[in-house]
Every structure is written in structure tokens, then in C-alpha cells.
């Protein structure tokens, strides 16, 4: 324990501002795990421990590395019951009856719950309330749950699931979004009167004129797949009703406040009668929102109906079957360019398969729409996006949120256009990319932050020596057994929710009489280290050692609804709220302490665990004792609201996001000509993060994002057969493993962003949205063939989507 | 039947014999570091050291393991809480995010580390010899 904390003391020193413009970190430390023969490197790793340690501080590291962290399924309660979901085999059907009599008689079963038992409302949804927590009128996809079985043990509950009989009238299932749009297609939600979830558009300039002015017009169709988030921890919840009637909810979720809305509405009780307690989360990636909330709601109902604590822990096969996925896109893309390499016009139609329920499809597709031309200035744009209901598994938020699909399209289109013009794709990018003061396709002028597009491109090209290596590409040369290729892709990305949601966050700083601090912020720790980032920020703000701070995991009953920790907004929003709370706190401290140490409250400096005035200084803990003596609580409450954004849905334009981030990733690979095996060699990523609050954790976001991007590009696909998911476990749904990974290098570019209170911007998602197009371009340079379908297949497995 | 877990000997009988090892460790011994994430031996979240070998235990039953010695993540640090150097290395390298499968990774890496050390020790006399 002691040695652990020693490191944090050193970290506090390092976390003082002394930052360089760009910090480069290499991944030696992890390389060893893949390279067991590199013994020397291994020991080097040990000796460099102290150097590395200072940039990686986390408040939860000790608990996590010793297995002490209690995730939802690790929680124990006396008298606990276990609940499990019951599915039916149908994909689309009208329910006639659900017979639970036999299941109710089964050994150990305490209660069987169906939609009839719901005291509140069964209709839920963050945007459209089309989602049933328990199927009532219809089954709309194969993951709909018809009943919940509650038993003394989980095994007993599972055994009883086979005894539930669903009598239903089968309906034709709509599995293709374009078929679902046909005029005579049956309706999946009859009350909505349409299978269209939403539409978005961008209209800029005059595309017809743009295409007339073009010397070259390219048209291509692209398709992307359903993707599972593959969080290692499946959905889980434990609920118990307190003696005062409040339902306590623990669960694996990204969004406690959204969960609370689902639970209270489902139980038909006030928001204050449900307390959702943040619980350590075993991965989310955007996937622990709707489904996680549903699981909590069902568990809460089971607890309410039985009067006992209930746990519901999902098996992987249930999680994969029921939970929402990344949207498959079908993109029709037409680009017109002039001889000198300027994009004259883009016309695109984007069709997103929303599956059975709306979830956040309108928001996901909105981002795709706003970013449909990538980081390029295009004067004539006509974009139509449509989200469609089908009887497939529903789709929702996933890291990247509508951008990975579009980048796969755009970053291949620009290379294809450049090649046809006989121009270097890099030069083509430079001629079209956004620069300081550029105007985006939705009419937003990029002048309030550093537009770092070219900076990150140059950083990546230099590091990977792109110019030198591109000439070595094989282009499918017949005289070679092993083909080499290098490829890159770049993007810009609107930060946080943008015009898609309400961006508000709260923080509470509660300093104790001994100078220790309790911090609470309305963002949720998803495993990315947001608690640690908040603690480091506060330590810097108050000039105290980070060990003095304890993070209070928030509960929905102690802090205002601060929205969801998605859209890479945690650090920005939480950091903003924290700064505001610190401002309030310092005003209170200043009033009491300035007279003691001299100067005005504004002149006080907070450093080295002391408060320094113009004439003397006082230790921070002594100062806090003074505060209590003076009967002034050193307590700060702060709210941060994201800067204003605007959107005109009618014309498809507006200042969509308050600031933007810029990223570029490149990769080298080889392809075995005979087997088609792709070997990833080396990847480099540069992202402008504004400011890296915790560089070590930031680096983790790079590598994790790139790994997921690699899975998206080459491995992952939820395979549907007649509306049923075939691959519902990790033996058949293949996510990348350590052996699949290339060497990776993260280049953190820091252009302090003045639009955010801490200077920090997003990182979690931008890192995830570029690997697929970079690999697509590298595969083209290796094989001489383009691939327009994800995941990309090479060689023998090359089933579809090759030019 | 006897089973050694983190150096301590347990006598297992009755219903516990019929349990999967992962459930026995988690439910009966409250060693919740090993996680159940796939049930089929595909992911490694349930990894423990079974007779010094990193083993995915989700498909294994207690009754098959008579006399086995098991080390879980809870047994890796010293009794006073000092981390094993490999655990410390994970902390220092920032190799932790959500932490859910970190126990499995630490134990797998630990076994690999042990293998390397063993290999080096086995090779040492040879190099010694060459130097002379
Ligand atoms: S839980 Fe996945 S391998 Fe055992």
C-alpha cells in the first residue's frame, strides 16, 4: 500500500503545469507481453518502473490489480434472490398469450413476472418511447424478453425458463432496412405509422452545379456491419427496497440518471424514490445505456414484487442476443472533384439500420450527417440520412457514435479520387482539409480553437515515415508472396453531445476540518479513469497532494442529473463543473483566510499544501480548521454548461459543436498472398486532446480505441440469420487479441482549448474512428484492391465487397 | 475432498462438490477477483493459477480437482498488502482501465514471467560455461 502511494506523491509534482506542445510516448511496456523472447526488454521494463509510474496515477489501481474492486455481480446481500430473462424464438410476432404456470411451479421459483405485473409504464426510450421492458403486444426482435423468472438460485431460475410457453402469431419479419422503407412494408410499430425512425440532412451550395464543374465524378456504395460492444462484464444489477421505501439500484451502467428514469417510470414511482448507486463498471463503450437500464428496471421490479433483494446477472449469450449494437450503415456516396484536386461536390445517402427500437438512432445518425464529408471543406453538399426500423437487434450508442462508418467511406473516397487524378492522396487531403478559419459543411466557422488537422497529419507521417514507405507498397504484385502496404486516415470530430442533447454537469467539493477533501462529480467512472482525472484536476486547483482527496462515487440522490458519460464528454464536462465548484470554494476560503495571510482573496496562491498570501502563508489543513472555527463551511458546488451550439433541422446547418478535435492514424501491414493472412505491423496515432490531464490514461484511450478500430476493420461482425444472432459468445464473435495487435505509438498533441474550462477535449472516441479506413487504405496499397464492406475480408475469406 | 486455495487448505463436501470452481471460489470463499464473463473458456476473465498453470476455470468442476492447489488474484500480493512486482508493474505501466479482467491478465502475465525466469535460470549454467 505504502509503495503505491509513494508514486502518487511524485505524481502530484509532475501534474503541475509544465507541459510541452506535443508529448510522445511509446508502448515498450506492453510490447513485452507479446514478445516473450525479448528478455532484455522485459527487465528494462522493471527498471523503468519509476519513470513510468508518475504519469499513470489512478485512485482505483490498487483495488483493481488485487481483485478487490466490487463489480455488480460481486456484491452480496442476505436473502438474495436471482432473476433471469426469458426469450422466445420469434423474430416478429403478435403475442396471444404467455403461459407461466409450469415455470411458477418449478423448483425454487419464487415468482414469474410478465408485462401484466408492471405497476408503472412499460414504454420507454431516451427519444421515442417505443421500447417495452417486457414484451406485451408483440415481439419485435429475437432479443425481446417475454418474462422474468425469480428463484432462490440462478440455476433454478434458468431451469424454469424452458417452461414458459409463448403463444404467438408470426408476422413477416423485416430484416433489410431498404425493404422496410418500401411503401407496402408492414409496420413494426403500428402506432408510429412508419418504419422511418428519423431523417437528417445537410444542404449546402448547389450540388448539381458542383458536379457540372467537376472533372471527375466517383460513385461508390459502402456497407458496414452490426458490432457488439463486447464489454467484458455483462449486464448486471442488484436491487433492494430500503425500509423507507426507496428502491436501491446497483448495476453495471454508464448512465445512472437515465437508469433512474427507466426504473422510476417502470415502477410508477417518483424519481426521488429510486436511488441509483454508481457501481464499478466492467466496460461500456457506449453499450451500457438502454439495455443496462432495462436490466436494472426488471431487477427493481422483481425486488419490489418479492420484497427481497434480487440480483440479475446476464450470461454472455443473453447479453449478445439482447443488447443493442453499433448501427450497420449502407452509404451511397458520390464525389465530384476538379482536375486540380478540389472537392467540388458531395452527394450522399446514408441508411442506418436502427433495428426494433429507436434508442439514440436520431443522435447517432445526426453526427454522421454533420460529419459526412470528413475533415474537408466542400462547398456543395447534399446529404440525406435515414434511420430505419427493422426486426433486427436494435442499435444505439457505441464508441464513435456514427463516425466510424462515415470515415470508412470518406477516407477511401478521397484516396480513390486522388489516385484517379494522378495526385498523391496526401496532397489531395492537404488541398481540401479544414484549416484555421475554414467553414464546415454545416456553415460553422472554425475560429474559436486551434484547427490542428495538418499538425496531426504531419506528426503521424513523420513518425511512421510515410513518404519513405508508401513507395514500398506491393499493390498485389504477382512476384511477391508477402504484400506490404501502409495506409492512413484522418478525421475531425465535434466534441461532446453537440446540438444532439443537453450538456450540463455538476460537481461538489466538500473539504473537511482536517484538510482532507471529498469530491463528487456527476460524470460516471466507466473504467476510463475519469475519477482519477477529476482528482488530479482538483489537486492542481487547490495545490494539495492528490492523496488528500477521496472521490465519492456518485448516487442519483446526492447530485443533480449530470447527463450521461458518453460522447467523450466526461473530462470536459466534469472538469468544467469542478472548476466552477472550486471557484465557489475559493471565494469562501478567501473571505476567511486572506485577512490572516495578507492580500485580497484573489491574490491567494494555492500551492504545496498551503495557502500563500502577500505577507505569510498557512498550511492547507490549518486553514481548513480556521474555516470551521469561523463557521464557514469550505464547500463548493459548481455547475458547468457546455457552450452554446445551434442546429437548424429544416435546412441542415448550424454551429453543430462548440469545439472540434483532430486526429490521424496510420498503419503498416503485410498480407500473405496465398493464405490472405493480414499481419498488422506498426500503428501510429496522433490526436489533439487539448490538454492531457492524465497522460498515462490518455495513452490508454489511444491504444484501446485503436484496438477496437482494428476489430471493426478486420474481425468483428454480429452475424444475423433470419433475424437471429448466430454468434453470441466470444468463441464465435471474435474480438482482437494481443497477438492480433501491431506495435502502437501514441502522439499526444496539446493545443489548449479555450472553449473548455480545463483546456481538455475528447479522446475516447476519436481514437476509435480511424483504424478501419487506415487499414482499408493500407490493404489497398498491399493488394491493389479496394474493400467497401466491413469487416474487410482478404484472400480466401474474401466473400464480398472487393472491387 | 481437499483443496488448497491461496495457501490455505479447505475441505469441500456436499453440494459444494457439484459446483463449478468459479462459483465455489466466488460464492463460498468470497474470492470474487476471478470473473465469469463467457462461461465457455473463451475469454480468460476467470483465470486462476491451478497447480501453477494459468487456467480458465469456468468449465471446471470442483469435484475434478481433488488435491489441487489454486492461487487466485487475492493470493498474489503479500499478506501485508504489498503488491507482487508484477501487480506493481501493471499499476506503473497504467495497464488498468475498467479492471474487470485485470486479475486474469495479471495472473496470465505472472505465469509467463515465471516461465521466463525459469528459462533464464535453466540457461544460466550454459552461459556461465561460455564465459569461462
Ligand atoms: S469466463 Fe471466459 S474463459 Fe472463463
Question: Would you give an account of this structure?
Answer:
By secondary structure, chain A is α+β, with helices and mostly antiparallel strands. Chain A folds into four domains: 1-52, no CATH class; 74-171 and 235-313, Aldehyde oxidase/xanthine dehydrogenase, a/b hammerhead (Aldehyde Oxidoreductase, domain 3, Alpha-Beta Complex); 329-498 and 649-783, 2-Layer Sandwich (Aldehyde Oxidoreductase, domain 4); 504-641, Aldehyde Oxidoreductase, domain 4, CATH 3.30.365.10. Chain A is built from 22 helices and 31 strands. Chain B has a single domain, classed as Beta-grasp domain (Ubiquitin-like (UB roll)), CATH 3.10.20.30. The termini of chain B are far apart. Chains A and B meet through helix 1, helix 2, helix 3, helix 4 and helix 5 of A and helix 2 and helix 3 of B. The site of FE2/S2 (inorganic) cluster (FES) has 12 residues of chain B, from loops. The site of FE2/S2 (inorganic) cluster has 12 residues of chain B, from loops.
Task: Itemize the secondary structure elements and their pairings.
The complex is a heterodimer of chains A (803) and B (132).
Chain A: H1 2-14, E1 22-26, H2 28-34, H3 39-47, H4 49-53, H5 61-65, E2 81-87, E3 93-99, H6 101-105, E4 109-113, E5 123-124, E6 131-132, E7 138-139, E8 145-151, H7 154-161, E9 165-170, H8 177-180, E10 196-204, H9 207-212, E11 216-223, E12 236-241, E13 247-251, H10 256-267, E14 274-278, H11 290-306, E15 310-313, H12 316-322, E16 329-337, E17 343-355, H13 361-370, E18 380-389, H14 403-421, H15 425-432, H16 453-464, H17 466-470, E19 482-494, E20 504-511, E21 517-521, H18 530-542, E22 549-551, H19 570-597, E23 605-607, E24 610-612, E25 617-619, H20 620-629, E26 635-641, E27 660-672, E28 678-688, H21 695-715, E29 720-721, E30 724-725, E31 743-749, H22 771-783
Chain B: E1 2-5, E2 8-11, H1 21-28, E3 47-50, E4 53-56, E5 69-71, H2 85-93, H3 102-131
Parallel strand pairs in B: 1-5
Antiparallel strand pairs in B: 1-2, 3-4, 3-5
Bound molecules: FE2/S2 (inorganic) cluster (FES).
Amino acid at each position: 500500500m505504502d509503495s503505491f502511494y509513494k508514486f502518487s506523491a511524485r505524481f502530484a509534482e509532475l501534474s503541475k503545469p509544465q507541459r510541452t506542445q506535443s508529448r510522445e510516448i511509446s508502448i515498450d511496456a506492453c510490447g513485452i507481453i507479446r514478445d516473450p523472447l525479448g528478455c532484455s526488454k522485459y527487465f528494462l521494463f522493471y527498471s523503468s518502473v519509476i519513470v513510468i509510474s508518475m504519469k499513470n496515477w489512478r485512485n482505483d489501481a490498487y483495488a483493481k490489480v488485487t481483485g478487490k474492486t466490487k463489480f455488480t455481480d460481486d456484491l452480496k446481500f442476505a436473502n438474495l434472490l436471482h432473476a433471469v430473462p426469458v426469450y422466445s424464438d420469434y423474430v416478429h410476432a403478435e403475442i396471444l398469450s404467455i403461459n407461466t404456470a409450469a415455470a411458477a411451479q418449478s423448483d425454487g421459483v419464487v415468482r414469474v413476472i410478465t408485462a401484466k405485473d408492471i405497476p408503472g409504464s412499460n414504454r420507454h426510450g431516451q427519444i421515442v418511447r417505443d421500447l417495452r421492458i417486457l414484451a406485451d403486444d408483440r415481439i419485435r426482435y429475437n432479443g425481446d424478453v417475454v418474462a422474468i423468472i425469480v428463484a432462490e438460485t440462478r440455476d433454478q431460475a434458468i431451469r424454469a425458463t424452458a417452461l414458459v410457453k409463448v403463444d404467438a402469431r408470426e408476422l413477416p419479419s423485416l430484416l433489410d432496412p431498404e425493404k422496410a422503407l418500401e411503401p407496402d412494408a408492414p409496420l413494426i410499430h403500428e402506432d408510429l405509422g412508419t418504419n422511418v425512425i428519423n431523417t437528417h440532412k445537410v444542404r449546402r451550395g448547389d450540388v448539381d452545379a458542383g458536379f457540372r464543374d467537376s472533372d471527375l465524378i466517383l460513385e461508390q456504395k459502402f456497407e458496414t456491419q452490426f458490432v457488439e460492444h463486447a464489454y467484458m462484464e455483462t449486464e448486471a444489477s442488484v436491487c433492494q427496497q430500503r425500509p423507507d421505501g426507496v428502491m436501491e439500484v446497483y448495476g453495471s451502467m454508464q448512465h445512472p440518471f437515465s437508469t433512474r428514469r427507466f426504473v422510476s417510470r417502470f415502477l410508477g414511482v417518483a424519481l426521488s424514490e429510486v436511488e441509483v448507486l454508481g457501481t464499478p463498471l466492467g466496460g461500456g463503450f457506449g453499450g451500457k445505456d438502454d439495455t443496462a437500464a432495462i436490466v436494472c428496471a426488471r431487477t427493481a421490479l422483481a425486488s419490489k414484487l418479492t420484497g427481497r433483494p434480487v440480483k440479475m446477472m446476464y450470461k454472455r449469450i443473453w447479453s449478445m442476443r439482447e443488447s443493442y449494437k453499433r448501427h450497420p450503415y449502407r452509404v451511397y456516396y458520390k464525389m465530384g472533384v476538379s482536375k486540380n484536386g478540389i472537392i467540388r461536390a458531395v452527394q450522399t445517402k446514408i441508411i442506418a439500420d436502427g433495428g426494433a427500437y429507436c434508442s439514440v438512432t436520431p443522435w447517432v445518425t445526426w453526427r454522421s450527417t454533420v460529419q459526412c464529408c470528413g475533415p474537408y471543406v466542400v462547398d456543395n453538399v447534399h446529404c440525406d440520412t435515414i434511420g430505419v426500423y427493422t426486426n433486427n437487434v436494435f442499435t444505439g450508442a457505441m464508441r464513435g457514435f456514427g463516425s466510424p462508418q462515415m470515415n470508412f467511406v470518406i477516407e477511401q473516397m478521397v484516396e480513390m479520387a486522388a489516385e484517379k487524378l494522378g495526385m498523391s492522396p496526401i496532397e489531395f487531403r492537404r488541398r481540401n482539409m479544414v484549416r484555421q478559419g475554414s467553414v464546415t459543411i454545416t456553415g460553422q466557422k472554425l475560429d474559436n480553437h486551434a484547427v490542428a488537422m495538418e499538425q496531426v497529419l504531419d506528426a503521424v507521417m513523420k513518425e511512421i515515415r510515410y513518404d519513405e514507405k508508401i513507395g514500398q507498397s506491393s499493390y498485389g504484385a504477382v512476384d511477391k508472396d508477402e504484400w506490404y502496404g501502409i495506409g492512413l486516415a484522418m478525421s475531425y470530430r465535434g466534441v461532446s453531445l453537440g446540438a444532439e442533447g443537453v450538456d450540463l454537469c455538476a460537481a461538489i467539493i466538500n473539504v473537511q476540518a482536517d484538510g482532507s477533501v471529498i469530491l463528487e462529480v456527476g460524470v460516471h467512472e466507466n473504467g476510463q479513469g475519469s475519477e482519477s482525472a477529476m482528482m488530479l484536476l482538483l489537486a492542481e486547483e487547490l495545490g494539495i497532494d492528490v492523496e488528500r482527496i477521496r472521490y465519492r462515487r456518485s448516487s442519483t440522490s446526492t447530485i443533480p442529473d449530470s447527463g450521461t458519460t458518453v460522447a467523450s464528454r466526461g473530462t470536459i464536462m466534469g472538469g468544467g463543473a469542478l472548476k466552477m465548484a472550486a471557484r465557489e470554494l475559493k471565494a469562501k476560503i478567501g473571505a476567511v483566510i486572506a485577512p490572516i495571510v495578507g492580500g485580497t482573496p484573489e491574490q491567494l496562491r494555492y500551492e504545496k499544501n498551503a495557502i500563500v498570501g502577500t505577507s505569510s502563508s498557512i498550511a492547507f489543513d490549518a486553514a481548513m480548521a480556521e474555516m470551521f472555527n469561523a463557521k464557514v463551511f469550505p464547500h463548493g458546488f459548481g455547475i458547468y454548461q457546455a457552450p452554446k451550439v445551434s442546429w437548424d433541422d429544416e435546412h441542415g446547418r448550424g454551429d453543430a459543436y462548440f469545439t472540434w478535435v483532430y486526429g490521424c492514424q496510420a498503419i503498416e501491414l503485410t498480407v500473405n498472398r496465398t493464405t490472405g493472412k493480414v499481419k498488422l505491423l506498426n500503428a501510429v496515432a496522433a490526436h489533439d486532446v487539448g490538454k492531457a490531464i492524465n497522460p498515462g490514461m490518455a495513452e490508454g484511450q489511444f491504444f484501446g480505441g485503436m484496438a477496437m478500430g482494428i476489430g471493426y476493420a478486420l474481425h468483428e461482425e454480429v452475424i444475423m440469420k433470419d433475424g437471429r444472432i448466430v454468434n453470441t459468445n466470444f468463441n464465435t464473435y471474435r474480438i482482437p487479441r494481443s497477438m492480433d495487435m501491431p506495435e502502437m505509438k501514441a502522439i499526444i498533441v496539446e493545443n489548449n482549448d479555450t472553449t473548455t474550462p480545463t483546456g481538455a477535449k475528447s479522446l475516447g472516441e476519436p481514437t476509435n474512428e480511424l483504424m478501419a479506413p487506415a487499414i482499408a487504405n493500407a490493404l489497398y496499397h498491399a493488394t491493389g484492391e479496394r474493400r467497401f464492406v466491413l469487416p474487410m475480408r482478404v484472400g480466401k475469406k474474401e466473400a464480398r465487397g472487393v472491387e | 475432498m481437499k483443496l488448497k486455495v491461496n495457501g490455505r487448505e479447505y475441505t469441500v463436501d456436499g453440494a459444494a462438490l457439484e459446483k463449478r470452481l468459479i462459483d465455489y471460489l466466488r460464492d463460498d470463499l468470497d474470492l470474487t477477483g476471478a470473473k465469469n464473463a463467457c462461461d465457455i473458456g473463451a475469454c480468460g476473465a476467470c483465470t486462476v493459477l491451478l497447480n501453477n498453470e494459468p487456467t480458465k476455470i469456468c468449465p471446471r468442476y470442483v469435484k475434478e480437482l481433488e488435491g489441487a492447489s489454486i492461487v487466485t488474484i487475492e493470493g498474489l500480493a503479500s499478506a501485508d498488502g504489498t503488491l507482487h512486482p508484477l501487480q506493481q508493474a501493471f499499476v506503473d505501466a497504467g495497464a488498468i482501465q475498467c479492471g474487470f479482467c485485470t486479475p486474469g491478465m495479471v495472473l496470465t502475465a505472472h505465469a509467463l514471467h515465471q516461465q521466463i525466469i525459469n528459462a533464464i535460470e535453466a540457461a544460466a549454467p550454459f552461459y556461465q560455461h561460455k564465459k569461462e
